[in-house]
Amino acid sequence: MAPSIAASENELSQFSQTLQTKVVSSVLLNETELSQFSQTLQTNAVSAATDFTTGEAIPDLEKNGRAERTLWILNAPEPPGLWRKLLDSVLSSGNKLKSLKEKPVSKHAIPIFEAMFPILLWSRNYTATKFKSDLLAGLTLASLCIPQSIGYATLAKLDPQYGLYTSVLPPLIYALMGTSKEIAIGPVAVVSLLLSSMLQKLENPVANPAAYRKLVFTVTLFSGAFQAAFGLLRLGFLVDFLSHAAIVGFMAGAAAIIGLQQLKGLLGITYITNKTDIISILEAVVNSTHSPWNPHNCILGCSFLSFILVMKSVGRKNKKLFWLPATAPLVSVILSTLIVYLTRADKKGVKIVKHIKAGLNPSSVHQLQFNGPHATELAKTGLIVAVVALAEAVSVGRSFASIKGYHIDGNKEMLAMGVMNIAGSLTSCYVATGSFSRTAVNVSSGCETVVSNIVMAATVLITLELLTKLLYFTPTAILASIILSALPGLVDLTEAYNIWKIDKLDFLACIGAFFGVLFVSIEMGLLIAVAISFAKIILNSIQPGTETLGRLPGTDMFCDVNQYPMAVETPGVLVIRIKSALLCFANANFVRERILKWVIKEQVVDTKGNLEGKFQLVVLDMSNLMNIDTTGTASLEELYDKLVIHGIELAITNPKWQVIQKLRLANFVNKIGGKVFLTAGEAIDACLPTRMGSV
């Protein structure tokens, strides 16, 4: 009988005292004592222990531990269903409202107002030094904003003053409600092009400008309503359906179309097609060359375009001269206007802006149309414009916030954008959002807070009141050159290359959006980009991938043997991990057949002519699997039945909450004998105890 079995209680006590004495006293053992001590320790550790008082076997603690951990998985509480989540959300909102009602109005009104209007928080620490920085930044921003706003209004097929209107009220409202310190609000090129390309199909902006304006204001209201709803209902994830790669491609395509459309102003062409695909525009430009045209427009526009681009280059090389590229557009407007006025070039064929209506934003409430024949189309356009405008604004805000080291609240941003566009639709503004080029100028000018937006809006307001008459002789070629100078910022070739290098599917979405905008239409480019992004999500979620796992030497970790060639497979065991997040009708049969193919491929014929398998156990690692449907559970049952025919056991490890719940309801856990474990190592040790999972 083994010494540990025959040992009495006194002998165990003596052994314990001897061990303690040798350790504490640090007594050096001679060779004989060391050998005897080692043998005694090994015998007591390896041999089956016996209770000294009753003679009953002491339970295997490791085995009991595995059993307990299996119960942790199987006895987990039932996961909450969809209705439970909705109910909890409603109850949570109700409890918050109830707690607010129980408090005095004065105690909860202030936090609510501070949450809605962040300016109430940061204005407490606002100083004169910060105001000086914001004043300089705001004036610099206005010098760029005024000519750009006029140019973008013409791009949206509106009169120039509507671009200036859009640079007054929306920035003021954003300054009260927004969370970004640097973002510059106003009209932008992409949204202007999107509006004109979609709405001129409903009304001709040249033949019936009044009806076209009504459509623009109504779409602006719808857009603002959607944006505010996204913020209030915390639906910001909808904006993320336009992936980064899709936005890069869409912006580049839109920049190309905008640039081609500016050939009308740059070359002084009388008419250019309303279509937005590259073939139609180039065809219209070629056809216009047969008509008489004045080269003075081209000379004037190209000269000042070169001037603006040179100033931008100088500003990039010398950061202290940041004001050069910022003021170059305004300087171009002033100089070109003086040239036309002094030379009377308008009499010689140079096209000019002419009359810009002066005064504050007029009300446009009476121009909103909800009962017209295009109401549904306007709502759809408003949704598309809302998503595109939010995608641009949020990406701009997050980019500069990360540089400055603070966080912007996406839901508050959406609410602020929504409120400012709703208010804008009532005051003759069209859709405003964050501009990347103007935000970059704002940052380089040293802005500290959104007060720079307030300064910019006040400057534009003064211009509307006092200076619009001075813009009468401004040549349209200059507006085209200003828009063209801003387009390089929309094309990011470096980022496109990085997307290609990192993820080919993302690059497919990028070029899909680019070519869709370029050769079909703005809407089609967006549709292609979103469709490819959705397809990528679905493909990644249900991709029928599996990988064979092996144990990393010296650890209990099991990893992909292809990624880690040093990982060693356990003899007689096939450990497989399902790589997809969902085991469903789209991939379940593939996974089942893939596993069976591995098992059958390793079978050999013994000397008696019988099939003999290499594997005795298949361990299915479900750590990546987030959910499973009825087709998935049925395929697992079929897999188990076929493995049993071949004399192979099946065990599963680390199933997620939803997965184990559905497997229990399908009675699959009982069918496989409760072989559910936390790790692959535990599954191997439990199912093949003689091997002890060793490699």
Strand order of the largest sheet: 4-3-5-9-11-12
β-strand percent reads 5-15%
- What gyration radius follows from the Cα positions, in whole Å? 36 Å
Structural class: mainly alpha
- Compute the number of strand runs: 12
Averaged pLDDT, please? Answer: 83
Report on the structure:
The chain is elongated. A hairpin with a 5-residue loop joins strand 7 (604-605) and strand 8 (611-612). Helix 13 runs parallel beside helix 24 and helix 24 (504-519) packs antiparallel against helix 25 (522-542). The longest helix has 30 residues, at 375-404. The protein has 695 residues and is mainly alpha-helical. The chain crosses the membrane at residues 135-153, 173-195, 215-235, 241-260, 321-342, 415-437, 443-463, 470-491, 511-535.
Outline:
61% of the residues lie in helices and 6% in strands. With 695 residues, the protein is mainly alpha-helical.
Secondary structure elements and pairings:
Blueprint: H1 3-6, H2 9-24, H3 31-46, H4 61-74, H5 82-102, H6 105-116, H7 119-122, H8 128-155, H9 160-165, H10 169-177, E1 184-186, H11 189-199, H12 209-232, H13 244-261, H14 263-267, H15 278-288, H16 295-317, H17 323-343, H18 375-404, H19 410-425, E2 433-435, H20 436-444, H21 451-467, H22 476-486, H23 493-502, H24 504-519, H25 522-542, E3 546-551, E4 558-560, E5 573-578, E6 582-583, H26 588-601, E7 604-605, E8 611-612, E9 617-621, E10 627-628, H27 630-645, E11 649-653, H28 657-665, H29 668-671, E12 676-677, H30 680-687
Parallel strand pairs: 5-9, 6-10, 9-11, 11-12
Antiparallel strand pairs: 1-2, 3-4, 3-5, 7-8
Helix pairs in contact: 8-17, 8-20, 8-21, 8-22, 10-19, 10-21, 11-18, 12-18, 12-19, 13-24, 13-25, 16-17, 16-22, 23-24, 24-25, 26-27
